[in-house]
Amino acid sequence: xxxxxxxxxxxxxxxxxxxxxxxxxxxxxxxxxxxxxxxxxxxxxxxxxxxxxxxxxxxxxxxxxxxxxxxxxxxxxxxxxxxxxxxxxxxxxxxxxxxxxxxxxxxxxxxxxxxxxxxxxxxxxxxxxxxxxxxxxxxxxxxxxxxxxxxxxxxxxxxxxxxxxxxxxxxxxxxxxxxxxxxxxxxxxxxxxxxxxxxxxxxxxxxxxxxxxxxxxxxxxxxxxxxxxxxxxxxxxxxxxxxxxxxxxxxxxxxxxxxxxxxxxxxxxxxxxxxxxxxxxxxxxxxxxxxxxxxxxxxxxxxxxxxxxxxxxxxxxxxxxxxxxxxxxxxxxxxxxxxxxxxxxxxxxxxxxxxxxxxxxxxxxxxxxxxxxxxxxxxxxxxxxxxxxxxxxxxxxxxxxxxxxxxxxxxxxxxxxxxxxxxxxxxxxxxxxxxxxxxxxxxxxxxxxxxxxxxxxxxxxxxxxxxxxxx
Length: 471
Prior knowledge:
It is a single-pass type II membrane protein. 40% of the residues lie in helices and 12% in strands. It is α/β, with parallel strands linked by helices. The strands form two sheets. Strands 1, 2, 3, 4, 7, 8, 9, 10 and 11 form a nine-stranded mixed beta sheet that branches. The protein has a two-stranded antiparallel ribbon with strand order 5-6. β9 and β10 (417-418) form a beta hairpin. The longest helix is centred in the C-terminal third of the chain and has 25 residues, at 331-355. Residues 1-40 have low confidence and may be disordered.
């Protein structure tokens, strides 16, 4: 495990174990050995997909400062705005393996305990002063940092806080110190902050914000509440999207039925914990097992034996295979194009206002889930990307060419890696143009038109694509 942890310092994008899709219990993993992934690292990437390696990437255990490509641009480009999508940090499981003891993880924040961050103590102190801050209901009823000696289900851990303090500090060094994105006397309307109603997303957003703007003025902070994990605001009703989702879930179910080794493994684990196989599977044991792995806690045992690493590898390997088939069958892509459209449309609207010289909402932060980031990545055409790890970050940068002030470009980065030219709307651009970025109009055209073209049919707008007959 120590080897794997060392290797993961230089890698980009993990496979997962948790839900790709809201409201479903569908699971997905990552990449296949036969496919080349975005920016693989030949030094540390195993020659074939290793389920434990992939799982440890997913844990994203804080270690040395990572390399990142955020903020890289020729000197004559000026940074105009930044739009950050994050997955919450490391959390306690959402499920319990039946008849076993819950993993003992402490969710209080202790400054001298690993993983350590120099701003952790100051973060706790600052959060304790935030009771008068502005949070849209129901966020105002949530705790601002994790604080239970035995973590509650789904609670952010100290690891999760440290992951986002690191993210925030990294973005501060690049966007504030180097590029001066915000003035020193920044105002409330220059930030746009939005989170789902889970404590882990609010707390992750606050940890990143504290790393980005240490000791920020609470009076300038306003977090909006987003009821949907897709961040679709008033555009959530989309029957065709739900039809893609149902077909994708059916695909996942049929793939699982074909995997006799997976069924045998669930059967063995069910005997160990003395419950029916169906009940064990419904309890999503991989979610709890990942917590054991990420926190170096032994897998649970009963008088009938122990859940072990071989069980874990079989389930994780199935997820990796599921991810490969998911890409090939394209049902999830249809779901993603419709699922990600509202938030991408909102983002390009914000960018277009910034190109007109508007100074509000220069830094946007969406604190979200794997089921938020995954459809956006898929919709952008980043099919080779790993599933969003804990504290994953997807960033859209908007730049202005000082030599041609009317020209604006975008860069897209995932966990610090520039993936702009891997996107479906810009993968051919650099073959035709020497420019180091993608023209903003490529992204706008993609969101306004090409996303619907990719779905087939004759729809030219979101409403028609969502209500298409005969799908």
